[in-house]
Amino acid sequence: MILDPVHRIAFVHVPKCAGTTIRNWLRPALGCDNSWAGPSRHPAFGPYHRAHVPLEVLRDHFPQAYDDLRACRAFALCRAPGPRFQSALAQHLREFHDCSLTQMSPEARAQAARRVIDRLTSDKAYDYLEMVHFLKQSDFIECQGARVVGEVFAIERLSEAIEAIAGATGLETRPPQEKANETRQIRLPSAAPLMRRGRKLAEAVLPQQAFRAVHGRAFRMLTRAQTAERPDTGLPDDVLEFVNRHYRRDHEIHAAALEPRPAPVS
Fold it and tell me: Alpha carbon of 22 to those of 48, 201, 242: distances in Å?
């Protein structure tokens, strides 16, 4: 999240919605600190990610930040729930299970998705930090059904979002055209285990800044951008039915964000 009460601008980072591109652009451009970035721990609810705080959590546990957000012109990006769920599943498996979604059989992929669904629908509390990418987009745009973030753009209209934010902030710079933190496919699937071992070794022996630079270059060389999003996510019907049902409000928000916007008044 980017929260700038001085300029009265906010960007609410909905997980798995291309928000890293906007966040990496705005934070240095506006001179914001890292107070709303990275993992942390709260005494009331445990581990959480400061970049992705649902609005009810923000209101109840960070009331000053919530009030600041309400006073700002707030922006967010949204995405079709099907591709977003698959992207979240890919990151979840990569970060917490050290495996690649693209290397799994259809049966294993379906089982992994069903385990996530079981955790989302269980009465038992789950690790918020681990499951943050599966939270509803509406949790970051609305608070108890009331709209808080006024300007929501579909990621299909990322360039429009960038221009709107630039106009609101007066920034002349623009972020790179390539999306940050995008889901990518390994060029040579059989090399995936070797890539993961190499990453762990490099992370263990290199300084953090050097690791990030080396890892970024290597990752770009050994992977390619995923093909354009399609409604068919490659998941079985029962998983897609859950996504359609569980994220019904997100479907509505995304559909509204795809509607043509009125031309700005000159």
Answer: 21, 31, 30
**Separation of alpha carbons 159 and 153, rounded Å:** 10
Rounded Cα distance between 45 and 31, Å, is: 30
Identify whether the C-beta of residue 140 lies closer than 8 Å to the C-beta of residue 55: yes
**Closest CA relative to residue 138, chosen from 78, 67, 63:** 78
Residue given tokens 């990275």 in the structure block: 38
Are 51 and 128 spatial neighbours (Cβ–Cβ below 8 Å)? no
CA–CA gap between residue 234 and residue 227 (Å, rounded) = 13
DSSP-H helix ranges across 31-80: 55-61, 63-71
Write out pLDDT tens, residues 151-199: 999 999 999 999 999 999 888 888 876 555 555 556 665 566 676 677 7
Contact between 96 and 133 (Cβ < 8 Å): no
Give which of 212, 228, 10, 236 is closest to 108, Cα–Cα.
236
Please tell me whether the overall predicted TM-score, pTM, comes out greater than 0.90 for this model. no
Distances (CA, A) of 222 to 23, 96, 122, 218: 25, 21, 38, 6
pLDDT in tens, 212-233: 667 667 766 766 655 444 444 4
CA–CA separation, 89 vs 116, rounded Å?
A: 8
Burial (CB < 10 A; 0-12, 13-18, 19+), residue 9, is buried
Residue 80: how many CA atoms within 13 Å on its side-chain side?
A: 13
Bridge-based pairing state of the strands 9-12 and 73-78: parallel
